[in-house]
Amino acid sequence: MHAGFGESSRAEAVRRARRSDRRVFALVTALLVALLALTLLSWTTVAEEGSGGASQEMEDPADVGPPADETNVPGSGAVSERLGTQDTPTGRTALVANPLYESGRLSPLPCPVPELESQDPESMEEFLHTIADCLDQTWEAQFAKAGLEYEAPERVFWEEPGVSPCRPYPSPAGAFYCRASESIYIGLTDVVEKWNGASQSVIYASLLAHEYAHHVQGESGLLEYYHEQRQLETEEADRNSWTRRSELQANCMAGAFLGSVRVSYPLTDGDLDTLLTDAAATADRPEETAEERTHGSIDNSVSWTEQGWEEQDPGVCNTWEASEDEVY
Ligand SMILES: [Zn+2]
Fold first, then answer.
1. Other Cβ atoms closer than 10 A to 214
2. Ligand 1 center to residue 299 CA distance, Å?
3. What is the value of pTM for the model shown?
4. Where are the domains of the chain?
5. Rounded alpha-carbon distances, angstroms, from residue 38 to 25, 29, 65, 151
6. Ligand 1: distance of its center to the CA of 247 in Å?
7. How confident is the model at residue 69 (pLDDT cuts 50, 70, 90)?
């Protein structure tokens, strides 16, 4: 009897357990269905926002406008066809909701940098190539995280004067990026002269990282839209307002890169001071008018650079949605 009771109680327990398993299963299924529905719903909403913005702003994707200065590029909007990557964003989406902003912190890749003798062009060349290799690895990894394609820029580390599709060099701009040739131009002795013979390597590393940031803007689709919008402005002051956002974003991204390699480079607190002093030196002067201001105030130039350095995340470099006084 006891045994019988025991048996029947076991059978009852098994039935109960099965019933409860079925209930758990039903509950889990219901939860999964709900989750799936939610995911689809949010995905649809995002997709609608994205494509709506893009079609509104890119009525004729083939028309990239005349090449004014550094950018407009045949084929810059080239769309990736590879699996596992998404299309390069276009329109305002590229500026304010670029997938790069969601890609997280830069991976701190090892970047041991050779000693720099800034007055020796060979040393400068080796130094710049080392930094450029690190920049390519860092941004390639970051673009992969964002699901975007990245192609390295060409490096033109020149000693003899020459001509780029954007402008001849040497140029008053010193180092520059030309989107039409997807190339970075730096003169091995010219750059040292322009920086009054500075010897600290971080200055040249940050200059290169800044030009790379313009390439990153190009590869992630935002440079093209920025240039289009800038061309539409009829007032110099309004064009400059666009330019400052682009330049301050480049400062921030350069800071992010340098912050990410500070351990292996290595960079000290003293180097950070040098970096921020340099950001102040390349900023607009307080007395300059809105018609002259293209790089941002001293405070803004320093703070965007420092923010990048501290967070090492392209997501903190979205200058396009910053308030006017953060980008003045
Ligand atoms: Zn720049």
1. 24
2. 17
3. 0.75
4. 1-59, 91-326
5. 20, 14, 41, 36
6. 5
7. very low
